[in-house]
Amino acid sequence: MCLGIPGQIITIVDERLQTAKVDVSGVKRTVSIALLAEEGVTPGEWVLIHVGFAMSKIDESEAQETMKLLQGMGQAYTDELEMLHQSQIE
Predict the structure, then answer these.
(1) pLDDT in tens, 6-29
(2) d(CA 25, CA 63)
(3) Which residues touch 84 (CB under 8 Å, ≥6 apart)?
(4) How far apart are CA 3 and CA 44, in angstroms?
(5) pTM (predicted TM-score)
(6) What are phi and psi for residue 29, nearest 5 degrees?
(7) Were both Cys, which of 1, 19, 33, 48 would link to 13 (CB 3.0–4.6 Å)?
(8) 3-state helix, strand and coil shares in percent for the chain, rounded to the nearest 5
(9) 60-78: per-residue pLDDT in tens?
(10) 3-class SS at 56?
């Protein structure tokens, strides 16, 4: 199953490479923000992340609600977090 997990942008790591550091359920990772380059992202904003890529922007209430739903999915949520841990974009 493929899930998008909410993450909050902490900082833009490299504007040229279009990467940002995000916090996803306490896991801090560098992800690609290239798919959102046209609309841009800034620290503090929330995005949906899948396998190391920020796919879309969401608001904080949607992020919190999505996290509740994902945590209730058990293994699918755990698997998605594991894929995030394994992705490495630097």
Answers:
(1) 999 999 999 999 999 999 888 888
(2) 11
(3) 5, 24, 27, 29, 49, 51, 52
(4) 22
(5) 0.78
(6) -135, 155
(7) 19
(8) 30, 35, 35
(9) 999 999 888 877 877 877 7
(10) strand
* Domain locations in the chain as residue ranges: 5-86
Dist. CA 84–CA 27, nearest whole Å: 9
Strands 19-24 and 46-50: unpaired
Neighbours of 29 (CB within 10 A): 19
CATH fold of 5-86 reads: SH3 type barrels. (2.30.30)
Residue type, 63: A
- Which residue has 């290239």 as its token pair? 34
Q: Which of 1, 22, 10 is nearest to 70 (CA)?
A: 1
